[in-house]
Amino acid sequence: MSFLRRTYTKKLRGVDIAIVGIPYDLATSDRGGARFGPRALRAASVKIANSIPWPWGFDPTEHLAIIDYGDFGFDFGYPHMIPSEIESQASKVLKSGASMVALGGDHFIALPLLRAYAAQFGKLALVHFDAHSDSAADTTGRISHGTMFYHAVKEGLIDPAYSVQIGIRTHNSDPLGMRWLTADWVHEHSTREVARAIQETVNGRSAYLTFDIDCLDPAFAPGTGTPVVGGLTTAQARGILTKLQTVNFVGMDLVEVSPPYDCAEITALAGATLILDYLCIRASNRASHKARV
Questions:
Q1: How many domains are contained in the chain?
Q2: Which residues are within 8 A (CB) of 25 and not within 5 positions of it... i.e. 6 or more apart?
Q3: Residue 135 domain boundaries
Q4: What are phi and psi of 163, to 5 degrees?
Q5: Which of 20, 23, 29, 260 has the highest Cβ tally under 10 A?
Q6: How many CA atoms does the CB half-sphere of 135 hold within 13 Å?
Q7: d(Cα 292, Cα 53) in Å, to the nearest integer?
Q8: Residue 288: which CATH number?
Q9: Chain centre distance of CA 67
Q10: CA-to-CA distance for 101 and 189, rounded, in angstroms?
Q11: Smallest Cα–Cα separation from 285: which of 228, 245, 243?
Q12: Across-strand partners of 252?
């Protein structure tokens, strides 16, 4: 089953966006199961395929060449090699001229993906939706889904001055220079104000969108490894995303969907819908560019 019923193929010529699955969850610190996330997201996406998404009013697959590239492969028996294997396969896709939407998998996958993107685009702005900052101090080479952005800052993959983390509601004494729009702050402001703050922070830089589904409150996304109460509603998250059309996104991942803990597929459906919103952002940017030309 492919994402949004797109063609499953390894051929990248002429492709705008490749959907890739990364079924990896060995970096989780609590409940596992995110390795089954790509399968769940693909299944949920069938419910919203071949339709006109609200409030966009158009089908992004009619404006972008989108394929399902399938899952990246790696050998679980050599865990220390998995990061470089993810980076290598991501680099192959990016060098073809296609962008990616990566289906996690736990959030660690963002680090090797950012390495591939930074090699292609230079230092990036990070737009990060999450309950956790995932930027705790760590030692070189350690694999964890709670420290990737510490490494990303230290490696120069992202520029903290232009990076923003949305929905944070767990403690970290050092945000490493990144702007925090905490869950409480989001609840106290409109989605338009949140979107404006994100746009001001990114300030026109090429940006990478990473969405941990636990940014949503467990009432809206129970199927995740480290749920934290007090999070965003699905409506808030969508309301923010649909107002980010001016952000120059070059790639996305959506991670930490854990089907064993889901209920009636509501977590997977939320994730698939947020990805559809991102595809609509990219499609609307394409249309705006053509109009200017």
A1: 1
A2: 32, 33, 34, 35, 37, 105, 106, 225, 258
A3: 3-292
A4: -115, 145
A5: 20
A6: 27
A7: 25
A8: 3.40.800.10
A9: 17
A10: 29
A11: 245
A12: 101, 209
Query: What's the token pair of residue 8?
Result: 């499953």
